[in-house]
Amino acid sequence: MQYRFWFVVGSQFLYGPEVLETVEKRAKEMAAELSAKLPYPLVYKVTAKTNAEIADVVREANYDRACAGVVTWCHTFSPSKMWINGLANLQKPYCHLATQYNKEIPNDAIDMDFMNLNQAAHGDREHGFLAARLRMPRKVIAGHWQDPAVAGRLGSWMKTAIGAAVSKELKVMRFGDNMREVAVTEGDKVEVQTKLGWQVNTWAVGDLVKEMHAVSEESIDALMDTYRQHYDIATEDLAAIRYQAREELAIRAMLDREGCRAFSNTFQDLYGMEQLPGLASQHLMAEGYGYGGEGDWKVAAMTAIMKAMGEGGNGASAFMEDYTYHFTDDDGYSLGAHMLEVCPSLADPAARPRIETHHLGIGMNEKDPARLVFEGKAGDAIVVSLVDMGGRLRLICQDIVCVKPIMEMPNLPVARVMWKAMPNLTTGIECWITAGGAHHTVLSYDVSAEQMKDWACMMGIEFVHISKDTTVEALEKELFLNDLAWKLR
User: Fold this and answer.
1) For residues 310 and 272, is the Cβ–Cβ distance under 8 A?
2) Residue 489 reports pLDDT greater than 80
3) pLDDT at 465 over 90
4) Is 343 exposed, middle or buried (0-12, 13-18, 19+ CB in 10 A)?
5) pLDDT for position 362
6) Which of 308, 318, 334, 289 is nearest to 466 (CA)?
7) CA of 16: how far to CAs of 22, 118, 456, in Å?
8) Order of strands across the sheet with 42-48?
9) Which residue from 162, 168, 170 is spatially nearest to 259, judged by alpha carbons?
10) Within a 13 Å sphere around the CA of 66, how many CA atoms are in the beta-carbon half?
11) Crossing angle for the helix pair 279-286 and 238-258, nearest 10 degrees?
12) pLDDT tens, 303-314?
């Protein structure tokens, strides 16, 4: 889908045709110049002057799948009552760009003609009141439209809106059920489809095995060449790698045939399979598919969404799990990993991931699975968990700083990422557990906490942010107030 965003500018007939012609000319200029700086096109649609014009453009936006969101700005005063019918029915993400055409006040040129034309300072406030009155989810970005920081914030919001568009049409394929007796991988799929749009359904592992039998040796050969292009082969067991390639090709065929962008499986259900998909799942994630281990369909979907929000539409976001802690006097570290399935988009670019085979001491594997082994890169990141609180969904986001692992861990045969949790290890653990955060997360270097907050706002769900300033006491109060507020919705 070639997504784009619509630029709708507000004005009125009171100022005469010459002013409206100038408004339209400037709006087209702004949309074109901004589009050159933004990740997605900003398309000027209309200078809205009546209730009917606004209602019509909103109706058109709602039904255009390629329209990922609407950006509004009021060049002049635009009476907000005429926006009611349109905004009340808007179903796309909405950003109010509070700007003006001129950057500075022209001392010698300012007169009543200038004032009549350049009224964004109070036009945007009239427009903003209406959205506040309607209690609409929205993003307000203020500043001059030629300021790189404004374009950066608008571009960031656009990527978030892409996440909302992907969510609304997302289909998740579950191979079998989730891991037995695990609470956090459960959830209300009807509520999730109602709120987030996800279609979550199950396919039998036997269907996958049948698809695997249909994979040709020639297609496996081609995928093996792709593996060699991207990864170092550090095992003599080529048969294990070829088996993973067979699994990957079969999973991809089923996902694409059903229009699914994410999948989950569990090591407790490998009927007819020799290996749990390790390398297969990792390379599929590198291609932009979402994945969740142990049947965790929520984290599978969030991985796909956050990948789509990242750089180039497939950013450095991946299924992750807190595996073990390193308690030290100077704050400490978390070590994130999983049995097999961590996306190589997280890998340190200084060293190519290695394909290795090792025994997996859990599950129903008949043979040692092949997997990618690597260290994660250093940098600021977040970990995100979507949990079902019973009656509502809560999105928990924690700021982290990933570091080069402080030890080599030569006998750990899995991909791993080490990080410092905010505000510190112990407080971060207490806050995460207090909020009900899951053991599975999506770790992302490309998506920010602000973007996840905006995404939660677009989807109408609760957002909890654990940052460098968070305390357990403040978080407990926030969660208590959230419980009250969400019960009233």
Assistant:
1) no
2) no
3) yes
4) buried
5) 76
6) 334
7) 10, 14, 41
8) 42-48, 4-10, 67-74, 94-98, 139-142
9) 170
10) 9
11) 50
12) 999 999 998 889
